[in-house]
Amino acid sequence: MEELEQNWINYLKKLDIAFQPIVCVHSGNIYGVEALLRGVDKIGFNTIADFFDSAYQENILYTLDLALREKVIRKFTSLKDYDKIKLFINIDNRLFEMPDFSGGNTQKLLEKFNLDKEMLCFEISEQHAISNISIFEKVLTHYKNESYSIAVDDFGVGVSGFQMLYRSTPKFIKIDRFFIDSIHKDFKKKILVQSIVQLSIQLGITVIAEGIETEKEVLVCKELGCHLAQGYFVQRPQLDTNKILKSYEHIIKVSHPRFNTNREQIKNYLEKIEPIVVTDRMNAVLERFKKSRDPAIPVINKEGKPLGILDEEKLKSFVSSPYGRSLLINETEKMPKVKKYIIPYAVVDINSNMNQIVESFSNYKEAKGIIITKAMKYYGFLSASNIISIINERNLVSARDQNPLTRMPGNHQIDRYINDTLAENRQAVMSYFDLNNFKAYNDTYGFRQGDRVIQLFSDILNKNLPKSFFKGHIGGDDFFAGVLVNDENFEEIVEKITFVVNKFKQDVLQMYDKKDREAGYIIAKDREGNVKKFDLLSVSAVVICIYKNSQNRSLDFIHKCFASQKKAAKADINNINVSSIL
């Protein structure tokens, strides 16, 4: 191995290491820290990239990198409970090009500080072009063979992201800041991140949302299924290790899980399969499968975090081969035997949206189930049969409550949506729609034509309000819509609702005879039996903007607001009444 010249030794003494926490989006608990180099500007380099480029040109990149790893690990051990969190270290893809590269040196460093390989994860950036794919594969193969976790950093910004995902099968991916920035206002970014998350979960990959800078970004990333978060909103990189906390209160407040029927439904079907610890001996594992009826058993590390599963069928096929059992229980190999047979598996938090769990399973037909976690720790196993039972139960409940005419969610689901939204203490817009002069139209044109009008409004609502809206049919000519919002898009939401009101007023004209359409009214009896003129059909909308931490966050209060503002909406020239709950 090359020895560092004195100038590089002096550089190392002047450099420092900062740590930035990576936390669970559901609990706010620290999961790990990323090590970041600081101080290159003080030793004459403009950027960190310039610093490593210089080392590469002098053929000392690997030697320097090892010296920095030791510096990182030494400082890492000064963190509180460092042995319970993961250390993320960035590696330069050019290390393998160095003439003095050799294996086993990181292992020696870890042993020096009495640390396990499990706590270390190497980050490989997608942002830096990998000119030689064979070298990249060597890097991956080397570190995976040495039993280290791999994270793909800056995922989504390079041209080879999915190729990297396929070749590396990383333990983590870090979604680049580009996709996270203002994601709450960008529908395209939401779709892309959701797709990345769903794919990653199916491959058993843990997703880190990188570069989180606002509360709204945390909330959206949590809703889309990201497991972990990192960024200035969590905490800026810290040179002082005492400032790295076990738990981050502001994340807990933002992400505090509300009571919801989804979570309770999952708990009812959850199987508390006792997991295997990665350090268990294979002999004990085989005995466990002999006595157990479970086709798959989750594997955890010593902190209780899931690593994947052991599949009985795959182990059986190996054991039944010549000398298979002897090879399997032979503990002399460098890699722990249990770890060698772990299969990456879908992991979802107990507080996740139920739709994410269903999608993760339904898109992966071979799955025996899903590992469920609570605050990133193993909580239980949701088997394939139980997931199917949950899907059937949900479909049955939905069918019972569904309006038979419009096939939209009915009162039970509407009330559940309102309750869940209020309990989460989020900003939202909720709207109540009521068709004006519908009874007179129904009496004149008949029930069948009246049903067509109801279906027309249902179609307009579904086609013109985005998927982010919850839409329901209260009954008769009454409808509901609700959506979570931020400060910036209250007006935008009201504009969408206004468009629905105006479009119905225009489109419903086709439901009248030419004579009535030209007259602009119909003659019919009112509720007291008096004959009078009725204006053509229109729709009134009561729009309630609910702010965060607003008072009177209850279902009854929302219904009272809708009822009290109904007349004002009908009297308004635009048929809309907008009010706020402060």
UniProtKB/TrEMBL annotation:
Keywords: CBS domain. InterPro entries: CBS_dom, CBS_dom_sf, Cyclic-di-GMP_PDE-like, EAL_dom, EAL_sf, GGDEF_dom, Nucleotide_cyclase, Rev_trsase/Diguanyl_cyclase. Signal peptide: none annotated. Residues 426-560 form the GGDEF domain. Residues 1-251 form the EAL domain. Residues 269-327 form the CBS domain. Pfam families: EAL, GGDEF. Gene3D superfamilies: 3.30.70.270, EAL domain (3.20.20.450). GO terms for molecular function: cyclic-guanylate-specific phosphodiesterase activity. This is Diguanylate cyclase (GGDEF) domain-containing protein. It comes from Hydrogenimonas thermophila.
